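To whoever is on call:

I kicked off a structure prediction for a single chain this morning and the downstream step that reads the tokens threw a length-mismatch warning. I double-checked the sequence; it's 458 residues and nothing unusual in it as far as I can see. Pasting both halves so you can look.
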Amino acid sequence: MTKGKILVVDDEASLRLLLSNELSRMGYTVEAVADGETALNRLHDEFFHVVLLDIVMPRVSGIDVLRAIKQDAIPSEVIILTGNATLESAIESMKLGAFEYVRKPYSLNELLIHIERAIEHQRSQLDLKILRDELKKNGYGGKIIGKSKSVKALQDLICKVAPTQSTVLILGESGTGKELVARSIHAMSQRSNKPFIAVNCASFSETLLESELFGYEKGAFTDAKSQKRGLAEIADGGTLFLDEMGEIPVHFQAKLLRFLETGEIRRVGGTKDILLNVRILCATNQPLENLVEQNRFRADLYYRLNVLTVNVPSLKERLDDIPLLVNNFVTMQGFHKEFDDSAIELLTSYDWPGNIRELKNLVERTCILVPKKVITADDLSFLKVNKKAEPGNESVAPSPTISSDTTALSLKEMERKHIINVLSMVNGHKGKAAKLLEINPKTLYMKMKAYNIITTYE
């Protein structure tokens, strides 16, 4: 595996040859060009970790190339190499965003140190951006909270599978924290200092999923005005987490299987294969074996994924962890509140069909709407929980419900009533209601229109 891709830009042929030979010998993939214009064309067509850039060149100067690289948001790190060093050029280069300014002559060891630092800096910046985006999207990021037997068993299993390079299939109901398990596996692996890229496969159509994962070449389709690296390529050296595997279109599954077996991808519109070193973690809330029987999931892909399996317990299997989870969510959201024993008792009596995600949203909603510092069971009266049957009573109790009306209603009537209840809780504020309902505001508006729900809030 290459240590990184380097573009050498210098009008001296002897220096280009020397750097190409020495850096290739040290394990880098090197390409050399003689002028700035050619360099910019290559940078738009191909990804390079580092650009070794001379300042004095014909037609386009190194300073102009550096300026164009930053203006076009090309992610390569630039190291200036020059035999005509001046204080003014050094200051201008650093202001424009050069990673380092090196005067000729220099030793190869010195240059290698700068290159390694530049590649490490680039990867850390990429990791930081990805992490920030993920934390903004999910609203959380951290360790697995809990002391129950099921959580301890889960943590023990993670410790066993994390150090391996094998594919891991993470199974669990929606909202149980499968991505958090994947992040824990990555954090405890030998790849922990490399990128962790999460992809929700249900969010993309077949065509979009392929271009998002594998990238595309310039001109591959109408809007492909420049080359784009796929998420699999960005994850090179690290971990790629594929969520909602059961939703992947059947036709794309063959390409995914080839990637899993060979480690190679081909960008949309491309003609060459790119070898990657990526660990794959997958997750689904669907029984894949049933999808295989229904011909909705390839059997060979299922067997390839099912190397190591991690089952994430539902919240009703770990009710003892609710006090810890509640305290964690309250602290994480920055609320200065607490749930008393009566509230915790009520929460542990509920079935939690939405699992930890539902609990997190309930805690946030309650902390926002209840002005008191101490939250009691009375503040959770909207959460109707059926009492446990007495010993000897064999009757089957109905499932817990948030509705207080026991009259049999159609699904549409129940949905309309629930929307009205939530709107009344937030005084008709559609944005807050949509957040509590976990739907898009536009979807809420369409449902209100369909159900003829009118609110006076503006």
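Update from on-call: the warning came from a stale cache, not from the record. Cleared it. Sanity check on the structure: The CA atoms of residues 236 and 278 lie 5 Å apart.
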